[in-house]
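Entry 12.
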Amino acid sequence: MQGNSDGIFVYFCKVFPYTRLISLFLNPMAKINNTIQIDIHGMTVDEALKLLREQMKTAPRWIEKIVVVHGYNRGTALKEAIPKLRSPRIKEIAPSFLNDGETIIWLRC
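Predicted 3D structure (C-alpha cells):
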C-alpha cells in the first residue's frame, strides 16, 4: 500500500470492491452508465414531479432510463403520480420488477 491518499483509495477499493455500489445508493442522483437514479423519498408529489421534469430536460441524450425510488409503504402517492408525467422524451413508464419501491422511466435517446 502506498503512503499517499490515492494509494489508500486503491487499496480500499481492492479490499472492499462493493464500495462504489454502496456509494451509488448514498447519492440521491447517482449516474450508472446510461441510467440516472433519483430518490424522491419524503418529497411532496409536486416537488417530485418538478424534479423529474427538470432531470428529463437536462439529462444528456445518452441517458436511456431514470430509476425513480419512491418507496414502498409511504410512496403510494408518488408511485401513482409518476405515470401521469408527460414529456416528448418519455418512451415508457413501467414498475420495476425487482423492487416495488421503484418505477422506471424509459427515455427516447
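Annotation: Confidence is low (pLDDT under 50) at residues 1-28. Residues 1-27 form one domain.
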